[in-house]
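Minutes, project check-in
Item: structure for the 386-residue chain
Input as provided by the requester:
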Amino acid sequence: MQALRTIFFPSINDAASRRMIMTLVVVMCLIPILNLVFPEDSFFHVGSNTIILLGKYFCYAILAISLDLVWGYCGILSLGHGAFFALGGYAMGMYLVRQYGIEIEATGQIIPEFMIAMGLSELPWFWYGFDNFWFALLMVVLAPGVLAYLFGYFAFKSRVPGVDLSIITQALTFALMQGFRLGEFGFGGTNGLTAFREILGFDITSDVTRLVLLMTTIVVLILALIFSKFISKSKAGRVLISVRDAEQKTRFIGYRVEHYKLFIFVVSAGLAGIAGALFVTQVGIINPDEFSPLNSIEIVIWVAIGGRATIYGAIIGAVLVNYAKTVFTGLFPEFWVFLLGGLFVVSTLFFPKGIAGMFSNAKLQAFVESVKTTVFSKNDDKKGEV
């Protein structure tokens, strides 16, 4: 058993992460059976809407991992990670939109239908190449990665302090949201990109395609977990933790702190872009609202509730909070924001290590043992009285 763990999970040396991976594998094997084998009127049937929701949750889990890398392991509280997520989504959305369109006789170009409605008669230069899937896949990682590199290079080189950096990242995503809302940008304005039909020649709205996309998302989530754990356990990861806990000392002993920060920031942005691309294929729309600063703040709450610097805790937080959002926005939509804020406050005050920390908290375990002892002792006393 130990040999198998070494082969398949070389960078996973904690039991909780291995259990998370095995849980995701079980879900990946179980969902197709519940969807294809059981009839629609069966209690065990997993319908198309549930598959879309699960795909959405797992995309958010990948996004949460990307933030946990920079915040949990390096101490960079980014309040603009929604921008990288949205850029990856737009890159994939551009490919999906270019699978169909209207041919312009004057230029011979086939341009998306929404551009005709917006009065454009020529394909903007930055849309070139997006009719090719592999080019779009490259841009899913490259677009947010380049933005993160340019932003991080100047911010980290200037040694912008933590609070100021958080505010600047939020300003960045707000500026992008306002820019993408303009029709002149050629991204569909406030409506964004939607009405997708095909991906790699397959009907994107068919149940089978949605199931395959969900399976793909789970595989990417598992790989993201393993990759993130590999980084955290590597020498670079140990330096990042040192930067988080004692940046000045790390700088004093000779490490180029800016380089390590820039490295993890770019990696995190690329991972967020992949999450956005997978999100778009399953939800079927991408618009400027995904750049909203509130979305970036929600990502922070997922990670805080799940547990910082654990990776698997970020997955737990993203899935549980978004499931709660789905339930409570349907039942009590006006109270959801207050509930979310309350969860964050309670988690910060009483469970600073999040849900993941609860299970490894010695005090909690001692409390549970004391409760068990009290209950069993009372039962024994009752039995003695009888």
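Outcome recorded: The chain has a mean pLDDT of 87.
No further action items on this chain.
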